[in-house]
Amino acid sequence: MAAPQIDIYTKFACPFCVRAKRLLTEKGADFTEYDITMGGPKREEMLARAPNAMTVPQIFIGETHVGGCDDLHALDRAGKLDALLAG
Questions:
Q1: Hey, which end of the chain has fewer CB within 10 Å, N or C?
Q2: Whole-model pTM over 0.85
């Protein structure tokens, strides 16, 4: 089974974004980062995918909206992140 697409919406100099990307990298996960610092179409895309999202990062693994950095780390602590990353 192929690993799911991972999208992460970030902003410049965001420490939570750095922590989330670090964890994904430590897990060996490939991800696509969208910098929405200046707004634009990717910010609109993020809001369409997660209408109530007001902070970054916003992380999507496949069709699953994980949420932010704390949510990603909570999944890891609960032992659920590896299975989600594996698809």
A1: N
A2: yes
